[in-house]
Amino acid sequence: MHDLRSFLDALSPSRPETWARVEPLFLPVVLPKGSYFIEAGQTERQVGFLAEGVMRAFFRNARGTEYNKTFFVAPAIVGSYSFMITGQPAAINQQALTDCRVLAADFAALRALYDEHPDLERQARRHAERQFVEKEQRELEIVLLDAEQRYRLFQQQFPQLEQLIPQYHVASYLGITPTQLSRIRRHLSRGGSGLTSLPL
């Protein structure tokens, strides 16, 4: 629980009385590698704190093809914010890529504390703002950077992650095939070009 409070306080400090209400809502969950925190179609709305491990968020189309949207590396907040807010069934999957340890809470119960504890609402708002910035940055990467530049940026954003997950997950995240990723890695190993910064 100490890691969760430290994570939240880094967003915005919380009062002791707020933490006393928040802490009991989060219960420990062990997710073995390959298991799901969220599955598409799910209606139960949980928010989680990834205390240990790596997870991915991905879509699966009607043909069964999977597209990785993002990765979560502990410490991180997990859960589909849009489906928690709208009440619609989840459209995305969140799956453990390694054995994971999560603290999970019912989102409605957590949200019910906002009016009484504005410091908690402020933490939630700042996390939502951070997610919005990351989403917009990701959209810019897809449009403005080529595959090699996206790969180099991935290495900066997720150092050491390639050693923990299969390469096809990395390729899916980059929007390329595993064969294309192998070519990029070979090119870079021979001293290929550097990363161009994104315009902001």
Structure description:
The protein has helices at 2-11, 16-22, 81-86, 107-111, 118-144, 147-157, 167-174, 178-189; strands at 27-31, 36-38, 46-52, 54-60, 66-73, 76-78, 93-96, 100-106. By secondary structure, it is of the alpha+beta class. The protein folds into two domains: 2-117, Jelly Rolls, CATH 2.60.120; 145-189. The longest helix has 27 residues, at 118-144. This is Crp/Fnr family transcriptional regulator. Pfam families: cNMP_binding (PF00027). It comes from Hymenobacter busanensis. InterPro entries: cNMP-bd_dom, cNMP-bd_dom_sf, RmlC-like_jellyroll.
* Span between termini: 36 Å
Number of helices: 8
Q: Helix/strand-derived class? A: alpha+beta
DSSP summary, beta strand count: 8
Q: What sort of overall outline do the alpha carbons produce when their principal axes are compared?
A: globular
The low-confidence parts are 195-200
User: Average pLDDT across residues?
Assistant: 92
